[in-house]
Amino acid sequence: MKKKPPAKKTESSSHISFSTKEFVQHERxxxxxxxxxxxxxxxxxxxxxxxxxxFAAALMAAxxxxxxxxxxxxxxxxxxxxxxxxxxxxxxxGYHKLRSFYLARAGEHSLIYFERLNFSPAISFPIFPxxxxxx
Length: 135
Fold this sequence. Notes:
Elements: E1 16-21, H1 30-49, H2 53-70, E2 76-81, E3 85-88, E4 91-94, E5 98-106, E6 109-116, E7 123-127, H3 129-134
């Protein structure tokens, strides 16, 4: 009679998962666009007067980037906190690769920050319904 192999233990790992936006999108009115535009035009004009053409080109590129980022819509991401680490959409960050985390409140928005090791940028995302439970 053959021996049966031992049954594999399935770990029921507990996790917290929710869907959130990638970042908080702030409302910008027409005065914001006019103000940034006038500031860029004034500084580019000064750069051209002083014949600093490279700086003027860099300012134009920065202005284009600012206006493109202002129209960027936040996508929805699935966040899953497990006993191994944090799943941020398709990316996974083990707890051993995170320095710290904290909850911050900025006005009406609450954000969770995960600081990574070295010089990697922090991961942050807004949370809305959980904050009312924390108060």
